């Protein structure tokens, strides 16, 4: 059993010229027992620093960290009962896989028979029994990473930490290992904090995602909530591929209706009733729409308020077999639409795309916050 609680945690690094850099800012977060939580964000946003503070490898500059309601700020790493798996495996090159797995237990003076049982158990879970006599340099990246995970398992920690464990593997292997790690969590039922810069990994593995930028938490929630209800522009743009399309504009009042005007007068549409945008008239707005909510055709019986017509020229199409990406332009504004494989697309001539208005997101341009 292990809950983890961050209470206003910050990390301040001092650089060589004595300047202070606040790499992690006022993190407040509660991780539940057995939860699989993913920290995701661009390079340099403070993910590893946050993880290393949990492991005890980095001193906490401000705030309190609790594991199972016990303050652990001053508890050394070896007494925290936590295992960490790194991107570069960090195996001992002169030891066999077996010796690497056994090492941590050996220095803890665990008896030989228990060591053997635990190593064999971990090897079985990870299907590396055949590799136990090999040394790291005679194994592939994927095999080394399994051994590194095995070494974390044999210690039977309360918490598993992963720092970009799959980033050195090729795309196919990364996909396979992702599934293995999800299965491992089901088997071991341990609290996991998993760091990645890859939003697909975050979406597929995380029960909850903590999305960070510039040392701060931007949003914490289930993957689908980050996808459907991003609380700001950063979250909206980070989660999802292709990236959400953004169009700058403004809401204006027209009789009793609210109209969005964007890009140029060529693109404007009336919001459906009950849109709650009354308070945002005349504010600079950024509208967002995901590529799958843009259509090349709509039913003639669709109501007028359901779709916004985007007059454009499609300059390029990417055929992916199961779908097509269309790159459409209005003046210099590029929009990516994700269309059905059989969509008939007019290239290099004026055409129209249709945006599902109910699926659009609206953000305040200045604050970046989602409007609701
Ligand atoms: P991430 O893992 O998200 O890529 P890090 O936690 O490694 O980010 O780094 C966060 C910020 O802190 C970065 O700007 C990085 O340059 C800085 N940083 C990391 N480690 C140190 C250190 N030991 N000394 C000074 N600055 C550091
Ligand atoms: Mg990192």
Question: What are the defining features of this structure?
Answer:
six-stranded mixed beta sheet, binds adenosine-5'-diphosphate, 8 helices, binds magnesium ion, OB fold (Dihydrolipoamide Acetyltransferase, E2P), single chain, 372 residues, 2 domains, alpha+beta, five-stranded antiparallel beta sheet, 35% strand, Rossmann fold
Describe it for me?
The chain has two domains: 4-238, 3-Layer(aba) Sandwich (Rossmann fold), CATH 3.40.50.300; 245-364, Nucleic acid-binding proteins (OB fold (Dihydrolipoamide Acetyltransferase, E2P), Beta Barrel), CATH 2.40.50. The chain is 23% helix and 35% strand. It has eight helices and 20 strands. Strand 7, helix 5 (171-188) and strand 8 form a beta-alpha-beta unit. Helix 2 (97-107) packs across helix 3 and helix 3 (112-126) crosses helix 4 (141-154). The mean pLDDT is 94.
- Biggest sheet layout: 6 strands, mixed
* CATH topology (fold) name of the largest domain: Rossmann fold
Gross morphology: elongated
Architecture (CATH level 2) name of the largest domain: 3-Layer(aba) Sandwich
- The named CATH superfamily of the largest domain: P-loop containing nucleotide triphosphate hydrolases
For the record, the CATH class of the largest domain is Alpha Beta
Query: What's the domain count?
Result: 2
Q: Return residue spans where pLDDT drops below 50 for at least 5 consecutive residues.
A: none
Report the span from N to C terminus: 38 Å
Number of helices: 8
**Strand-pairing-aware structural class:** alpha+beta
The number of E-state strands comes to 20
């Amino acid at each position: 059993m292990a809950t983890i609680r961050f209470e206003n945690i910050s990390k301040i690094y001092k650089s060589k010229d004595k300047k202070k850099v606040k790499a992690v800012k006022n993190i407040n977060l509660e991780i539940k027992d057995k939860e699989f939580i993913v920290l995701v964000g661009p390079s340099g946003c403070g993910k590893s620093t946050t993880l290393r503070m949990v492991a005890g490898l980095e001193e906490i500059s401000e705030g309190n960290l609790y594991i199972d309601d016990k303050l652990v700020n001053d508890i050394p790493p070896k007494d925290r009962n936590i295992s960490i798996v790194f991107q570069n495996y960090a195996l001992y090159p002169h030891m066999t896989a077996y010796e690497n797995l056994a090492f941590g237990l050996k220095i803890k003076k665990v008896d030989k028979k228990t060591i053997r049982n635990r190593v064999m158990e971990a090897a079985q879970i990870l299907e590396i029994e055949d590799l136990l006599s090999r040394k790291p340099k005679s194994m592939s990246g994927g095999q080394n990473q399994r051994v590194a995970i095995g070494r974390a398992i044999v210690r039977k920690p309360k918490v598993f930490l992963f720092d970009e464990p799959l980033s050195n593997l090729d795309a196919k292997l990364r996909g396979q290992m992702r599934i293995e790690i999800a299965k491992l969590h089901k088997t071991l039922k341990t609290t996991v904090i998993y760091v990645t810069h890859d939003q697909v990994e975050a979406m597929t593995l995380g029960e909850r995602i903590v999305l960070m930028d510039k040392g701060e938490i931007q949003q914490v929630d289930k993957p689908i909530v980050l996808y459907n209800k991003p609380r700001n522009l950063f979250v909206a743009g980070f989660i999802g591929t292709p990236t959400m399309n953004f169009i700058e504009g403004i809401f204006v009042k027209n009789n009793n209706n609210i109209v969005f005007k964007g890009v140029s007068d060529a693109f404007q549409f009336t919001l459906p009733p009950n849109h709650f945008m009354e308070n945002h008239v005349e504010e600079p707005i950024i509208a967002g729409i995901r590529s799958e909510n843009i259509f090349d055709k709509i039913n003639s019986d669709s109501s007028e308020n359901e779709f916004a017509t985007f007059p454009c020229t499609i300059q390029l199409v990417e055929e992916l077999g199961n779908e097509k990406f269309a790159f459409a332009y209005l003046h210099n504004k590029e929009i990516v639409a994700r269309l059905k494989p059989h969509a008939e697309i007019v290239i290099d001539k004026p055409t129209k795309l249709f945006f599902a208005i109910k699926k659009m997101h609206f953000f305040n341009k200045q604050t970046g916050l989602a409007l609701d």
